What we know:
The chain is an alpha+beta fold. About 35% of the residues lie in helices and about 25% in strands.
Amino acid sequence: MQCDKARNPAGMRHKAVYLPQTYLHLMNKYHQILGKILSGGKPQKNKKGNIVCLLNESLSLGPGDLLEIFEGHPIARNKLKCELGLFMRGERQVDRYREAGIDWWDYCGSTLVNGYPSYFEKLPGLIGRINRERRSSKNYVLFLGANGVESNQAPCLSLVQFQIDEGRLVLSAYQRSSDANLGLPADIYHLYLISRQVEMPLESITLNLGNVHIYENNMEKTRRLLAGESGIKFDLNV
Length: 238
């Protein structure tokens, strides 16, 4: 079902989709975000293409929610696991990713400049410190990015914080920008893999999403995904 078209000042049209609240509650939490963007997102234009977005959304996931997402949504687990390993080793050469079957960094040229590897290579040391100290510290934080530096893909994930509450891990992350179709499920899985390297049970992973969006050319595919169609592949916008 569709409601009236909305037009933004720049002239971009977006067909909002009405999704009943009872239907949204039946979805896993990731699919709920997709449905919320379709039904209430605002049109926006950027250099990568037109998007429909929500600002300042929060997604809190317990172990059961994560299992529900991973079982109910196709995720390239092996590639993402390999990608995270390359990030944490500080691998900047795009060829190394391509050799692992990861081709979504090809548009960056031969080298990732001030991208994820530049910051994730600090993660093993931070995780080692957490596992040694096991303190309820507010200072177990990984910052990704810096102002005024050259980059061919600034990380969309900006901060990851590890807190320990009564012996359980509470993981929080801030994302400045999140492609809901491709980037968000990948980031959820990366954060889950990171949490498994901390030697204590996981309580929750919470993502604070500054701008979470669906690109215009992926909107119809998102509708089909939420309608239950399998084998949907989304387009990368670069």
